[in-house]
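Lab notebook, bench 4. Still working through the backlog of constructs that have no structural model yet. Next entry is a single chain of 360 residues. Request: give me the structure tokens for it.
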Amino acid sequence: MKSLPVIFPSFNGEANARAGVEDAYRRPELLSVILPVFNEAHNLKELLPALFRSLEGLGLSFEVIVVDDGSTDQTGEIVRQLAQPELRLIQLRRNTGQTAALMAGIRFSRGDILITMDGDFQNDPADIPKLLAKLDEGYDLVSGWRQQRKDGALRRNLPSSLANRLISAVSGIYLHDYGCTLKAYRRQALQGVQLYGEMHRFIPIYAYWNGARVTEIPVRHHARRHGISNYSLIRIPKVLFDLLVVVFLHRFAQRPMYVFGGVGLINFGVGVIAGSAALYYKFVDHEAFIKTPLPLLFVMAFITGVMCFLMGLLAELLVRTYYESQNKPTYMISYSGAEEGGNGLSRASERPAAQAFPRS
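Model written out:
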């Protein structure tokens, strides 16, 4: 039986792996398939052979990265038993969630083309060639759309449909199925993207806001064969909170004073109205201040407004510290025609945060 290298990420190991990803280990012709899994031992027995059959027919070099997100079953042992030279196993020390597992797989991957999919065999590996063909049309991210979804109609399909409509309306990127893990990416579409919480479903939004071309295609979806789903309705409020964070960071990350200052102005307005009304009742209707809550409302609104302005100033300082301490530009480059040494202009490649998405 072949031995399969197992990676236990540590702080130094992760930093070294990230540095390796940015260096010569990455090859343009390499395809990386990332499977975040949690207690999917029985499904992996069927999924991995089917996945390798699909990938071997592509005529490309590839690697398959299984990220074991703290499984308590025999997931790790099953992957070792199915060991192949192209198969890599990353075992996280505890269960951290699908988003963190995906980020670990992305960081340890070496390919310039990334495919993500679930480990429960509900996504069909036979759809991978269709995703790659769509990428070849000039897109940077292709998302799967489970048009014929094999899940519970009320418990999963209905909440998912409503969430997809809400996310599309708020973000401006209209996709039918944000929750489908089966996606294909060009690596540059994910550069600089850091995901937290349950934000893996918002990767198309991050990529689009970074200048990537995003589309979707229908993909097959199968009923779960083994085990139970880790999905629960508690994810719904989490998705709403994460969406709020994503929109806030996109619109106001570089100008937080617009938010805090706006709230401060509203409070000042409320204070002016409350104070004016209190004075009116006092000097026109001859009512004592203590007979109405208006003076108290004036004081609270004024203090809240001052605090909002001060928080906005602190946030502006933090934003500047964030960018200037890392020499991080506040823009992203689509194309630069400047040549090295020409007219004193620096090359786009010398700006690590700049991302180039060629335009046709």
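Notes after review: Residues 5-27, 339-360 have pLDDT under 50 and may be disordered. The radius of gyration is 26 Å. Flag for follow-up if needed.
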